[in-house]
Amino acid sequence: MLNSTWSIRRLTPSPSLSPFFSLPTTNTPKLRPNQTPFRFMASTTQLQQQQQQSTSEFLTQRPYHPPTWASKLNPIPSHAFSLGHFPTPIHKWNLPNLPKDTEVWLKRDDLSGMQLSGNKVRKLEFLLADAVAQGADCIITIGGIQSNHCRATAVAAKYLNLDCFLILRTSKMLVEKDPGLTGNLLVERLVGAHIDLVSKEEYSRIGSLTLTNLLKEKLIKEGRKPYVIPVGGSNSLGTWGYIEAIREIENQVQKGTIKTSFDDIVVACGSGGTVAGLSIASCLSELKTKVTAYCVCDDPEYFYDYVQGLLDGLEAGVDSHDIVKIENAKGVGYAMSTAEELKFVKEVAESTAVILDPVYSGKAAYGMMKDMAENPRKWEGRKILFIHTGGLLGLYDKNEEIGSLVGGWRRMELDESIPRKDGTGKMF
């Protein structure tokens, strides 16, 4: 039995929308049975055609056909929504101080959308198709106070006219207070997500499954039809998002303009679904690329076990230890950054114009570069594809910590005798 004194602190969106704007709550995009996705880059003309098709298919539901090399996995999803802008680009990442003849390339899944961006979009394409198929009228999911997954879910759900209920984990000191409008929270609250706050201690004691089930039971009693998405969208169904991503990478490499093959795929690991999809798909496809994941919470053995469960749920018949190498990059704790890690994020942005989030890709890239510095021969001559999983909004939660690392401003010196001359637009 749960402690009867426990309760979820709820923040509800505005009860009514502007009279000039209203959304239906039950209509969902209709299935187009003859619509088949094509996600590859074979030439400039084909890329332009695909981008036009991707735009026209946005928010539509399509039948899903797996890659031939994944056809023995089970179960195979029947449908998916088009939620992201794919394929995401791959380009060379000119990081300084790489080992001899080492190349790092970047897969820009941070560019899969704007407010709906990052690696979670790929999972949500399958998860929300299942939710609609089951007749859901609302979505429940759970995560940290700055969860990228929760923000992406809130946006995607609203796109499909589904209400979204988020359970967000925060500190004991803040659980009774308004969580504010920083980063992901701003987007979630703008799109009208219902937010329930729990403390880290309550989350640890009760667990994410029980918390989401409690909310699910409550909503069912209120006459709703909720669909629960687990932490990070990481279940066996969500894993198909990154199985599909490997097909995308494979086509970009084999038929596109990259003209290179990769020895390694490197990615952050926070809930396990992205890693499970990348590793099993790389193993089954022609890529046969070594996957290294840097976990930003828990520990490697936890994720080997969790990924194994996802693989077993697909009847993959492989051992997680054989298809992925998981390294620890948690540092001082999940979503907690050292001064050295934040300095690294700033230096990468300054030298390459690639902005890493401090929770996931920032820690993974930091772990990779640290290992390269300590073990250069291990990486010499290798071609690495780093998956940027997004999370830019998480940086806004670190503005005070990172403020001392950035400069680049000064008061412009102006002499009062300088004559006035207007340009285009007075701007006042």
Automatic annotation (TrEMBL):
Q: What class of enzyme is it?
A: lyase
Coiled-coil boundaries: none
Catalytic activity annotation: D-cysteine + H2O = hydrogen sulfide + pyruvate + NH4(+) + H(+)
| Record-level GO cellular component terms | mitochondrion
Molecular function GO labels: D-cysteine desulfhydrase activity
Q: What is its EC number?
A: 4.4.1.15
Subcellular locations according to the entry: Mitochondrion
Where is each Tryptophan synthase beta chain-like PALP domain found? Answer: 82-390
Identify the InterPro entries for this entry. Answer: ACCD_DCysDesulf (IPR027278), D-Cys_desShydrase (IPR005966), TrpB-like_PALP (IPR001926), TrpB-like_PALP_sf (IPR036052)
Names of required cofactors: pyridoxal 5'-phosphate
Alphabetic keyword roster: Lyase, Mitochondrion, Pyridoxal phosphate, Transit peptide
SUPFAM superfamilies named in the record: Tryptophan synthase beta subunit-like PLP-dependent enzymes
Which Gene3D superfamilies did the record assign? 3.40.50.1100
- Which NCBIfam families does the UniProt entry name for this protein? ACC_deam_rel
- Family per similarity comment: Belongs to the ACC deaminase/D-cysteine desulfhydrase family.
Identification of the protein by name = D-cysteine desulfhydrase
State the organism named in the record: Lactuca virosa
